[in-house]
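Handout, section B. The chain below has 217 residues.
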Amino acid sequence: MHRLCAFIVAAVLWLAVSNPPMAHDSTGASAPHGPDAVGSGYRGGVVTPPLPKPKFTLTDTSGAPFDFWSNTEGYVTLLFFGYTHCPDECPLHMHNLSVALAGLPATVAGQIRVVFVTTDPARDSAETLRSWLDNFDRRFIGLTGSQAAVEAAQRTAGLPPGKRLALANGNYGIGHAGFVLAYSKDDRAHLIYPSGITVEDWGHDLPLLAAETWLER
């Protein structure tokens, strides 16, 4: 089946990954992935140099402005751009994260924020987004905005905007980057997590990220 959530990743992001083993989606695109990325001890793809945490403001599911930079300061922040009609990658990432977080001690889970930004604001109202995210974890933060604002946020994060894909039934899907960007407490994404990352992988890496001391180096 054609994967609507195909990996569409900016060239700078490809070049930044430090040669971990590669996983492939059905479009033939490759994504960094490995059980122990370049000997780091992490199971995500290591990014060198790390990506700076983007600065953008969108609207959360309560209708309030959400300044991504300031509202996630001091947390391990997992940022993903997707949409609620996504048939595969988006629900899989959210499911795996929710199960992994539920298995962590509250002292660790409380240091982690998951932020899901819709790439389909025309269909993903605040109410739709909140209802969908609540299927996984009520703590997950959902953000939306105008099409222009959402596209600008993706570019600021180093990703190309999602691309509308026509379907045979007259509906549409959205092709978008399939990576979760993991910003540690130093406001840098040292790791990215593509498709294929499991609950066990998240359970292994999240406590390490919460305890990480890159900020002090």
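Note. The chain has one domain: 11-15+50-212. Compare this with the example in section A.
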